[in-house]
Known about the structure:
Elements: H1 3-12, E1 20-25, E2 31-37, H2 40-47, H3 56-63, E3 67-72, H4 76-90, E4 105-110, E5 117-120, E6 128-134, H5 137-150, H6 171-174, H7 188-222, H8 226-246, E7 255-264, E8 267-276, E9 279-288, H9 294-307, E10 315-317, H10 325-336, E11 341-343, H11 348-369, H12 374-386, E12 394-403, E13 406-416, E14 419-420, E15 426-429, H13 438-459, E16 471-475, H14 478-490, E17 497-502, E18 508-512, E19 517-519, H15 524-559, H16 566-576, H17 579-584, H18 587-591, H19 598-616
Parallel strand pairs: 7-10, 10-11, 12-16, 16-17
Antiparallel strand pairs: 1-2, 1-3, 4-5, 4-6, 7-8, 8-9, 12-13, 13-14, 13-15, 17-18, 18-19
Helix pairs in contact: 1-2, 4-10, 5-7, 7-8, 11-12, 12-15, 13-14, 15-16
Amino acid sequence: MDQRLRRLKDKANKLPLTPGVYIMRDASHEIIYIGKAKKLKNRVSQYFGSQEKHLPKVQKMVEHVADFDYILTDSEFEALVLEASLIKQNQPHYNILLKDNKGFSYIKVTRGEWRNIYHVLQKDDSNADFIGPYTAGYTVTRAVDEAKRIYKLPTCTKVFPRDIGKSRPCLNYHLGLCSAPCAKRISQPDYDRSVEDALRFLKKGSEDTLAALRAEMEAASEKLDFERAAQLRDTIRSIERVGSRQKVVQSPYREQDVFGLSVADGRGCLSVMRFADHKLYDSETFFLEETEQPETLRSSLLMSYYSASRKVPPRIEVDGEVEDREILARFLSEKRGSGVTVAVPQRGDQARLVDLCRSNASQKLIERYASHDRSGDALAELSVMLGLAKVPAYIESYDISHTSGSDNVAGMVVFENGKPLKSAYRRFSIKGFAGQDDTRSMAEVVSRRFDEYEKCREQGITDGFGRLPDLILLDGGSGQVNAVLPVLAAHGVNVPLFGMVKDGRHRTNAISTGGGRIEFNARRKAFAFVTALQDEVHRFAISYHRRKHAKTAFADELERIPGIGPKKAQALLKQFKTISAVAAASEEELAAVPGIFARDAAAVRKAFSLVDGAAET
């Protein structure tokens, strides 16, 4: 330990075992980190101990600490409140800071005969009218997109009337999403009426619009204007379809925020879905270049999110445990002025909303950080999906193969950087027991693999069995995973372990965690990668089993000949390789095999002559 760390640790060891806030400063006395602690001495002294135990972010922060201050508080809650206040005032570099940098949104309506509607962030055109401002940009964007889809307004960059009659209708017209003014498929008065209807939809909402449209449709029918009535009917159906899609993300609570966190390879993404009147009205995404432990990270993110000028709802749903959840809920309750619940749902509609939010965060993280290489994309998706600390560059996979419990074998394949590393493939014969038991077989194979790892480590070997994988994937579900987890613990190996589950048609379906399942959903690249890996390990294991089973069947057939036991059968198998070669051999050739006497050769020749004779008959 260098002199600086020793000095700081000595100072930390003199702190009291009481709640408080600590303030880390760099050499220029600037505040670089602010934290809270239940027991100041224990928490602060941890920073200046063994640096290998810290996450990379903490290691970087500690490298810049020249000194620290502290403020004692009477309770953990007071420490939390003071920490939040000091972070907001000082904006330290190493604290998580979610900026409230959202601007206003507007609905822009162009002027002239062929108007159109857009979502914009600024009043950027004097020759246009604007509706707004709105604070929820997500809602405005979605509403404008829906209005243009329902009323078939163009979404292209063409300018009207300049571009009218200059091209044929595009695909959107044929899909019923555009009225194609570019190809003169709609008159200017009808188009203008569509714009007015779209604006009415945006200003009054779907319920009021539906009521007005139904009344107008009935009036058109009474006037025998069936063409107009049919147009109104189609519009009503479009609005109802939009409404049915929105119900998929409706909240069972009138007002709440839902948080989903995805972390992979030291980076993270936080997705937030905000609900009012049971409907999603806003969505935000924040990226984190460095992360902490998930429980601590969620607590810091919630504090930072609501420390900005955001309204605190009565209910907050998160996708995992939150450090000091009760104290945080009390802090948010005081900020709101009434009770706030911070919950981690386990089942039902709330759990599905949390899963949806976390899936959004995962997808955003993949899009932002995944490599352009396809295997890199797949591995990035897989690491996010499984919540791994880093993208798995070296993956081992295992499968068991047998015929009704006989010739029990296993195959191990290795993928490095998303591609098969065939030089590292290994085969195993199950030796610990006889009969059919896939879970015991899997446990035996993995145990033997890590026995070899311990031998390699003693000899200083770092490749082959001497290399630890970043991820282990077993062919099987919770039974296999739960059988192997104690094996890893017994060997002191800390490697992420999952099972690959197949459906009734023997197709890759999901990932087993040992206590639950992770569905692939839209993660197509991860799905394709895991499917290819599972197919490869199955192929490798079953090909070894077939070779072994063929040899066993060959030996069994030879052992049925009088005077030929297991040793003599193995000698013949070693010499001739196939049953056809033995059948075709002369007595002299058979007798030349070590361990085979003349009487044995005659018995073998006689046995196969009888078979040949029967075949000819």
